[in-house]
Amino acid sequence: MNKDMHLLRAVEMAAIAAYKYIGSKDKDAVDLAAVQALQIMLNSAPIATKVVIGEGELDQAPMLYVGQKLGISDSKKINVFDLAVDPVEGTYPAAYNVAGSIACLAAAKPNTILPLPEMYMEKLFVNQDLANVIDLAKGLKWNIKQMQQKKSYRDLVAIVLDKPRNGAAINLLRKSGVIVRLIGDGDVLAAIDVVNHEADFVYGIGGAPEGVLMAALAISSCGNMHAKLLPYQDIWPNEPETKTRMTLEQQQLAKYQLHYQQYLTSSDLINDKEVRFIATGLTAGGSLKPIKYQHGVYKLNSFFSSHGIFRNMQVTYTIAQIKKLRPEIKTVIDNYQRDYHKQKETEITDMV
Fold this sequence. Notes:
Elements: H1 3-19, H2 27-44, E1 47-53, E2 69-70, E3 79-89, H3 91-95, E4 102-108, E5 120-126, H4 140-151, E6 157-161, H5 167-175, E7 179-183, H6 187-195, E8 201-207, H7 208-220, E9 224-230, H8 232-235, H9 242-255, E10 263-265, H10 266-269, E11 276-281, E12 292-294, E13 297-306, E14 309-318, H11 319-322, H12 327-336, H13 340-351
Parallel strand pairs: 1-3, 6-7, 6-8
Antiparallel strand pairs: 1-2, 3-4, 4-11, 5-8, 5-9, 9-10, 11-13, 12-13, 13-14
Helix pairs in contact: 1-2, 1-12, 2-12, 6-7
């Protein structure tokens, strides 16, 4: 099995593990299941990987922490990747069974992913149709006009996170004739919709780690993204933790020679034209469909992009069959499958 299939299967098993807790109203359970499954799968893969964007530092996360090394690395021919992982982008939508959650990762050559901390980022993401016309440094209004001219119509479709911090931008977009599709969570998922031509662009202030994943998607699908890091105090000026957060941000920016006034392109965030991006729907939405389960069969919708080629795939996992494939898959399924056998026993008892 090649390296891409190992990575793809790892993401799909993370989605299958998290599925058990969809609608549970427990965000931590959703995230933990996906994290554990992803770690099990990556640790068993014949690929040496290191987490660059993950669940946090070691003292914040015991698994998939920044700097953690995974995989089997005793072969000279081993494939080596740095990873940006988000086992569940959108834990709230998954926990409450509403649209907006996926499992995803990006895999790039060593030392090519910018290890951004947890902070806010202004992002403009476009697909290959508009890849050469954006320049975030010139402002949103200028970019709207450029995209409208390129497309030859005003009613572009934009996807924007429905957050107070994006209120002014939403008003400007609408006044400019742009159709605004608001989402509660999941700007990585929204970017997949843009690649699949469900919308023209994603704009707004969201998370910086998610921005790295979006950069991987942009590069791997021949799209583009421009971004700018924003201080925590610009979003939450009066919160008790603002001072502490600002100190941590400034330390991280100094470490990587970054500053708030700097505009970043996709290649600034990931300097690898061969980066891979993989996602599987949980509650999903838009062009990526949610995971389904019935009578021991999981049906998934996965997305894979690299080298300018992207694939939307319908995937079927039959529990009885996949448990025979590899021991790590059996471990994940045994830990996280729905109570299928108990369900069957109950049905038989009821019939009797």
